[in-house]
Each structure stands twice: as C-alpha cells, then as structure tokens.
Amino acid sequence: MTAQQRIVLGIGGGIAAYKVAALLRLFKESGHHVDVVPTEASLHFVGRATWEALSGQPVHTSVFEAVEDVNHVRLGQDADLVVIAPATADLMARLAAGMANDLLSNTVLASRAPVMLAPAMHTEMWDNPATTANVATLRSRGVTVVDPAVGRLTGQDSGPGRMPDPQDLFAEAQRLLATTPATSDRPGAAGALAGRTVVVSAGGTREPLDPVRFLGNRSSGKQGTAIARAALAAGATVKLVAAHLETGVPEGVELLTASTALELREAVTDACEGADAVVMAAAVADFRPADYARSKIKKKGDDGAPTLTLVRNPDILAGLVDRRRADPAAGPAVIVGFAAETGDEEGSVMDHARAKLARKGCDLLVVNEVGATLGFGTEDNTVTVLSADGADEIQVAGTKDEVAGAVVTALANALNR
After folding, report:
1. Across residues 145-172, what is the average pLDDT?
2. Sign, Cα dihedral of 272, 285, 386, 357
3. Are the C-beta atoms of residues 144 and 108 closer than 8 Å to each other?
4. How far apart are the first and last CA of the chain?
5. Has residue 184 got a pLDDT over 50?
6. Nearest to 187 by CA among 277, 80, 107
7. Are 233 and 252 in contact (CB under 8 A)?
8. What is the C-alpha to C-alpha distance for residues 180 and 183, in angstroms, rounded to an integer?
9. Residues annotated as part of the active site
10. 6-11 and 33-38: which strand pairing?
11. What is the reported pLDDT for 390?
C-alpha cells in the first residue's frame, strides 16, 4: 500500500483544540498519514482517545513513550510537514527558545520539514511584546505563523486571537506541501506533480429516457475524487470534471460539471487544453437512448413495456488519444484510462484489460474487478496499473486514498519518462 505525505499534527493547550478534530479529518480524507502529538495541557481539552480514533495511530506526549522507536527523533525526521494548532503563547515561546521538554517540542527540533503554527489566545496575549518577538523569531527561521482570526474569544471579549478556520488551515497546509521539496522519496510525496496540470474525471454519467428516468451506473465517484486529492497533495493544479457524485468535492480543485456522456466529453476536452495529464476515472455510459421522451413515459392499459432503442456514445478516452496522435502538441502528455472489468467465458479480467490497453492507446490503464459488491461505492479498492511503455505492472490494495496515491505515483513516473 502506498503512503501519502506524513504530517505531524501538534495540539497546544488551548480551548480551540476541539476545532482541530475537523482539521485532522480533512488531512485524513485527503489521504495523508497523520501522527497527532498533543501537549499534556491539551489533553485537558480533548482526550487522547479522540486523537487515536480519528488518526488511526497511537498518540504519545512524552519522550519516554515508544522509546524503542526513538519516537522523539523519528517523528520529526519522517515528517513532510509539522502543523501545530492551536499554538499557544507558551508553546510558541518554548519553540522560539529552542526548548525540548516534551515530545512535541523535541519533534520540531528534530524535523527539517516546514513548520506551520496556528496561534490562538486572547488579544492581550497576542499583542504582548514577548509574543510579538517570539513570532518574529520563528518567522525569521522560516516557520509559517498564520495570523489569528478576529472574532469572539473564550469569554465575552473579542478581537484578534481566534484560531483560523480549519478549512483555511488545511488550504495553507496543502500549499506548503505542494511548494516544498519532499523530505523523502516516498511515492506520492509532495512536489511530485508540482507545476503540472492534471484533469480528473469522476462519477457516473446519466443518459435521460424522459424527464424522470435515466440510464445510469453504480459509480460513486469516490475513487476519482481520491485521485484528485492525491494529485493536489502532490503539487498539481487539478481540474475535476464531475459527473454524478455520491461524495464530497475536494477543496482546492477547479470544479467542472457534466451529466451525460456527451457533456462529459465536451468538458474533458476543454479542460485538457494545456494540461499535462488526464485521468479518466469517470464511469461513462457506453450507450444512450436514441430518442428522448419530453414527457414521462406512461403505462397504457395491459400493453407490454415500451421498446428502447440505444445508440453508442462516443469513446472519450479513445478520442483524447486520437486527438493527441493528430497533434502531439495538443496533449495531454499522459492519458490514463480506467477499466472496470468483469471476467467472462471469453477471458479473465486481466485478459480484457490488456486488450483494452492495446485497443485504446492510452499510456496507463487502471484495472479493477467490479460487481454488485466490488469497487462501486466501497471504501476500499484493489487495482492493477498497466503501462503501455512496458513498465512493471503495479498492484495495490487498500483504501481508495491509498490506491489514489499509487495511481498518482505511476502518473508522475510516466510524465518523467
């Protein structure tokens, strides 16, 4: 299984700690590995069990815990980003002084990753000359100190000192991950797609029969949106062409919408202008009704069901390949197809997939076996990534975010080749 960026999420001892649970969820939904390191004081506001449940990782506060892993050094060395929220006045003072009297401050000292602090305190504490000097010192060392928001504080007072909204902190963290060189060579690490534009299609198309009925499929869009998140985290500018989704849209993408296969073709073709890569993860209907009934098709007496005539939809993936063949400058440089396959009497899933790769002419093909309980709508997936240039097949099983990391790694490698 492929790891994403590793984030150390430090929790300071302030009442805003409860808001950080939402930030942790955003990191996890984006496929990141998160180690939560709270201070002892912060556990008075949010307990250890909450952080372990949300992160899926053990949580420690002391350098004398997990000593067999040399935790106070390993966490910092392995991190791609350290985020501390809320960053209290006391915690920032200790970091500015270079102190290392708990696991979190040790982790910061041991890390060469970017550090981002989200201060939260009363206005008088934020405006205090000591805090002002500490913030200036930290910023002079390259630490990102996000200005606190202005608003209602713990008591009746208000002013600058509120911890910024978790969505805003998440966006700033994503920016830092995308613009800072990775601290390791882990697949999908930050910067692998920096400066690239990637188009991702996701969800299922619907072909209308009448104003209330349509031909559709089981696609939820979860795998496609996971790939969009992974590409964002790897530094890409992402255009998400969304058909019908049963999941949220990742923050930070440029969203384009489509309903039918014809609309999706137009949206993807337009989005691919100037793009470096396209990932066709959407489940596109192969057929559409030849005729659209402008009023609801009704039952008439005891007559049988109406006969539906279908016509083929255009092959969007093959169209992108043909367009590039005709004009290589039109791109994209890497075209990734998806094959949701079932085996039959004529061959296995992989037999059909390899034939599809040769037939379509795309650069990579992501293959997964599907069925009523396989692939569609689930949280996990198992895929094989085939490459037209003969690169080794990649097999990955795990959450859809972990699968997305493998696809993005294969995409980045194909662009480099």
Report:
1. 85
2. negative
3. no
4. 23
5. no
6. 80
7. no
8. 9
9. 217
10. parallel
11. 83
Retrieve residue 53's tokens: 């449940």
Residue 201 has pLDDT above 90, yes or no: yes
Cis geometry, peptide bond prior to residue 114 (ω within 30 degrees of 0): no
Average pLDDT, stretch 238-249?
Answer: 94
Q: What is the mean pLDDT of residues 327-356?
A: 87
User: What is the share, in percent, of the chain residues with pLDDT greater than 70?
Assistant: 93
Whether 150 shows a pLDDT value over 80: the answer reads: yes
Longest distance between any two alpha carbons in the chain, whole Å: 86
CA-wise closest residue to 103 among 134, 64, 69: 64
Q: What does the pLDDT read at residue 285?
A: 93
Domains and CATH numbers, the chain: 6-179 (3.40.50.1950), 197-416 (3.40.50.10300)
CA distance 343 to 350: 8
pLDDT in tens, 245-291: 999 898 889 999 999 999 999 999 999 999 999 999 999 999 999 99
Tokens of 75: 């966490």
* Cis peptide bond upstream of 332, omega within 30: yes
